[in-house]
Write a structure and sequence with these properties.
Structural class: alpha/beta
Number of strands: 9
Shape: globular
Radius of gyration: 20 Å
Helix content: 55-70%
Distance between the termini: 56 Å
Order of helices and strands: EHEHEHEHEHEEHEHEHHHHHH
Number of domains: 2
CATH topology of the largest domain: Rossmann fold
Number of helices: 13
CATH class of the largest domain: Alpha Beta
Strand content: 5-15%
């Protein structure tokens, strides 16, 4: 298959490499051309519009603003190859997903929202969990590519924004789990319980699962080097808040954790892993 790729950060580069390994032609565009040169077998696209001279185009950019700047402010969609399907794998707002659906329909370009769960090492191992929503025929057309970058593809519905709602809600749940472990560790620590013993108890009994095990280990080790930066986590919590407000709903746990994470970012922890809100919780309890 002829594949275009836009956005070669750590996630995008890993995904592009796996598509190349599967025998597909990949032409990629990135703001920094060096990222394209670093991936063996990937051809350089001269522009985002050039990348859309393909059967399928993947976009892995950081947020709504980046996609707007790269795609909607260019001629990429207007000049796209007939029949192309554009797959947006970024975590974006529900409102922007709706706007993208309209813009793509007007341009006659297929559009799927397909955000992913997984860090760069998971992407490198082709073990991403992919949430996709959009036209069923388009999903089946792209599925062979999903199969070479992910562990499983989960179809969320026919409206692209449904995949974005699922991703935002999932990230919200991760943040709530991190905050729950942080607060529980404060409580037990104040009563002389070692954090390692407590987290092991929880992850081996009541709360077994990847999120609790991975982030619990980071909390115990005090290892908050970024896998997923806190400032990006805060962005996603704000997306969840915006989606809830659009629906007229109040989500008090979300509000509390978003406020905590915003304070941690303001305290200079934005480049730390988002599990670093645990360190902020410990610091706050000490009054420092």
């Amino acid at each position: 298959m002829d594949v275009g790729f836009i956005g070669l950060g750590m996630m995008g580069s890993a995904m592009a490499r796996n598509i190349v390994k599967a025998g597909h032609r990949v032409r990629a565009w990135n703001r920094s051309p060096d990222a394209v040169k670093a991936i063996a077998g990937v051809e350089a696209a001269a522009s985002p519009a050039d990348a859309f001279e393909a059967d399928v185009v993947f976009t892995m950019l950081s947020d709504d603003a980046a996609i707007r700047a790269v795609l909607l402010s260019s001629s990429a969609l207007r000049s796209a190859r007939a029949g192309v399907v554009h797959v947006v794998t970024s975590t974006i707002s529900v409102d922007f997903a709706e706007e993208l659906a309209t813009v793509h329909a007007e341009a006659g370009v297929g559009y799927l929202s397909a955000p992913v769960f997984g860090r760069p090492d998971v992407a490198e191992a082709a073990q991403l969990n992919i949430m996709v929503a959009g036209d069923a025929q388009a999903i089946e057309r792209v599925r062979p590519l999903f199969d070479v970058i992910g562990r499983k593809t989960w179809v969320m519905g026919a409206d692209p924004k449904q995949a974005n709602a699922a991703k935002i809600a999932g990230n919200m749940m991760i943040a709530l789990a991190i905050e729950a472990m942080a607060e529980a560790t404060v409580l037990t620590g104040d009563n002389g319980v070692a954090s390692g013993a407590f987290i092991e108890l929880m992850t081996q009994t009541l709360f077994g699962g990847r999120v609790y095990e991975n982030y619990g280990a980071k909390i115990v080790a005090g290892d908050f080097e970024a896998g997923f930066k806190m400032q990006l986590g805060l962005k996603d919590l704000r997306l969840a808040t915006a989606a809830a407000e659009t629906s007229g709903k109040q989500l008090p746990l979300l509000d509390a954790v978003r406020t905590r994470m915003a304070a941690a970012v303001e305290a200079g922890m934005g480049d730390k892993d988002w599990s670093g809100i645990a360190a902020y919780a410990f610091r706050s309890q000490r009054g420092s």
